[in-house]
Amino acid sequence: MRFSVSRQAAAPLLAITLATPFIPAFADPAIDTVVVTATRTPQRADEVIPDTTVITSEEIARAGAGSVADLLRRQRGIEIVRNGGPGASTSVFLRGANSNQVVVLIDGVRIGSSTTGAASWNATPLSSIDHIEIVYGPLSALYGADAIGGVVQIFTRKSEGTPSFSASAGAGSYGARQYDAGVHGATGGEHSLSYALSAAREDADGFSSTRPGSSSYNKDDDGYARNSVNGRVAVQLAPGHEAGLQFLKSRLRAQYDSGAASYDTHNEQDIDSYVLFLNDRILPNWRSSLQAARSNDRLGSFTSAAASGASQIDTRQTEFTWQNSFDLNGDSLQVLLGHRKEEVLSSSSTALNRSRITNSVAAAYDLRRGSHLLDLGLRRDQSVYGGKTTGAAGYGYEFSRDLRATASVGTSFRAPTYNELYYPGYGLPTNKPEQGRNVEAGLRYRIAGAELQANYYRNRLTDMLVTVNPCPSRTGSCAYNVNRALLEGLTMSVETRAYGIDLRASADLQDPRDETTGKQLARRSRRHASLTAAHALDRAEFGAELQASGSRFDDAANANRLGGYGLLNLYTTWRFTADWSLLLRLDNVLDKRYELARYYGTTERSWFAALRYGIR
Predict the structure, then answer these.
(1) Contact at 8 Å (CB) between 192 and 159?
(2) Integer CA distances (angstroms), 513 to 3, 132, 518, 525, in order
(3) Which residues, if any, are the signal sequence (predicted)?
(4) In the prediction, which pLDDT does 258 show?
(5) Is the dihedral of CA 465, 469, 473, 475 positive or negative?
(6) What's the rounded Cα separation, in Å, for the pair 559 and 593?
(7) Which of 73, 200, 285, 570: disulfide with 180, CB 3.0–4.6 Å?
(8) Closest residue by Cα to residue 51 from 149, 154, 155, 156
(9) pLDDT value at residue 18
(10) DSSP assignment letter at 47
(11) By the 8 A CB rule, do 560 and 523 touch?
């Protein structure tokens, strides 16, 4: 890897990753967390081979009025780009992979636009989320197309226990206002019914999405409003047999700049997902899950009062999945059949109004033998772009209860988007899927109550789709399979508890590089790090978050440099009764001026306060 880290930049990284383990810590990290995304079946986190992290409901509660993307960028291996405030267009990079090289799921339902291939992060409501699982590395052998950098799965709140009610109201800088309420519970008896329903509204006056220097600059504030509702209802038909419905619907209206025009330029975006599911324990060792799901992504842009100033793109994904899991004397075998239909229902360019179907079959085997762990996966996807076979193999060895090493290999691919295939003057119907080959090695070590983890990865991508000019098959520019890229890096993290303070730190050293041009991939730094410290008293908790990122380039030619930055956030929560609590949060305490994208605004020093009732 061609890393060039200065001594000044390396010092805080080394302090986080090397000095922290020698603090005399006293509490072992929790090892009873259960995750499902890494293997598509519930599994203890400390038995999972792929690098996985979980954002808990407590972390989400402390996020205040931030967006899902703001929450994600505090995690290792993740960077974001946003064209303005929380309601603006947002991209999420996972281990240097593009936003459209990451699969995003909400309760198992794939979301995103078929025209861009990326999820609509700015329209995803934070208040509806219970927890998030992030799995790093290629997972096409389990999830098919686009899982090159990893998978992010969002889980909304579930229904269980006695009926209860929760609500919150908050306000903060830039005219931010936030309200949400929910109810959940379950009935007893042989045919029990569980339910959860919540609704939320978030809005803010915002700040100018652009800065002087941008051709679109307008100094007016660009605010947003987001309304959402989600729910889940499930009934136990008989012991071991459950049927239910789950849904999420969110609507966003976000302003943006398009020069000095007096018209209120804005986007209106809707995302929704619906799923019917049937879970059956057919035999003591055979579990079956049947799911029918649909997700929609609608985006309207309005730049003037005239009809020509409006554009609309509506896309839909429909999926049918049948997953069977077999317990084979402690081992696990999974067999999966999938059918997915992608449609562009309407577009300002009628050439995009198409559909395609992908049929899939996959199998995975998880073996546990004493100190040995082995995961194998194989999948075949058949679509209009041809057939793609992907596979993965991971091995782990536990030297002791406190020391484990892992190694894995895997292949992946990204299907061309509708824009890359059919957009007039840009797409080529002959474009092929991008392909990835990843090798990875990891080490996890517990010492004196601290848990250290390091993962090295090398993900080589071929047939990268980029804009070329001139186009090989016609005049002008077009999307074309021509580039190669290398996503290589080392991620280090540590969690510990010392003197009553919970500490978590991570550092990423990476080299996301376009091998065809030799340039650093746009808007991705070669180093970034985070540190979180929290201390809990009887009824209160105090915490600090530090985020640091090195410099990046705003363009593929590496001509426009974006400077590095460091952000300090502080928060406190106070539970003054069993049901009532207060959150106070101060972000960007040092009022750092920085850019995630050239000439686009970012949040200055800001505050948020929320009063909450009930248990999240």
Answers:
(1) no
(2) 11, 28, 7, 10
(3) 1-27
(4) 86
(5) positive
(6) 21
(7) 200
(8) 149
(9) 37
(10) G
(11) no
Residue 19 burial (C-beta neighbours within 10 Å; 0-12, 13-18, 19+): exposed
Closest CA relative to residue 530, chosen from 502, 493, 558, 496? 493
Instruction: List 290's β-bridge partners, or say none.
Output: 278, 322
Give me 14's structure tokens: 């080394």
Q: Looking at residue 9, what is its pLDDT?
A: 40
Backbone angles phi, psi at 19, to 5 degrees: -75, -35
DSSP, residue by residue, 445-484: EEETTEEEEEEEEEEEEEEEEEEESS-TTSSS-EEEEEEE
Q: Is 138 helix (H, G, I), strand (E, B) or coil?
A: coil
Which residues, 6+ apart, have CB-to-CB distance to 516 below 8 Å?
464, 482, 483, 484, 485
DSSP assignment of 317-349? EEEEEEEEEEEETTEEEEEEEEEEEEEEEEESS
Cα distance between residue 320 and residue 341, in whole Å:
9
Position 53, amino acid: T
Torsion over CA: 90, 96, 98, 104 (sign): negative
Closest C-alpha among 429, 400, 408, 409 to residue 417: 429
In whole angstroms, give the CA distance from residue 602 to residue 599: 10
Q: CA distances (Å), 400 to each of 28, 48, 65, 314, 429, in order? A: 15, 16, 43, 53, 53
Could you give all domains of the chain from N- to C-terminal order, each with its CATH number?
Answer: 7-613 (2.40.170.20)
Mean pLDDT per 10-residue interval, the chain, length 616 residues = 43 39 37 86 91 93 84 95 93 96 95 93 90 96 97 89 91 96 88 92 95 92 96 94 96 90 90 96 96 96 86 95 94 96 89 94 95 97 94 97 96 96 94 97 93 97 94 92 96 94 96 95 96 94 96 96 97 94 96 96 96 81
Backbone angles phi and psi of 31, in degrees to 5: -120, 10
Residues listed for the chain: 616
Q: Which residue has the tokens 């636009």?
A: 113
Residue 260 DSSP code = S
Helices (H), 212-284: none
pLDDT of 568? 97
Q: Both tokens of residue 180?
A: 């949400």
**Burial, 191: exposed, middle or buried (Cβ in 10 Å; 0-12, 13-18, 19+)?**
exposed
Query: How far apart are the C-alpha atoms of 508 and 506, rounded to whole Å?
Result: 7
Residue 69 to residue 52: CA distance in whole angstroms: 18
Beta strands 102-106 and 109-110 are antiparallel
Q: Which two tokens stand for residue 386?
A: 């041809």
Q: How far apart are CA 508 and CA 492, in angstroms?
A: 6
Q: How many CB atoms lie within 10 A of CB 616?
A: 14
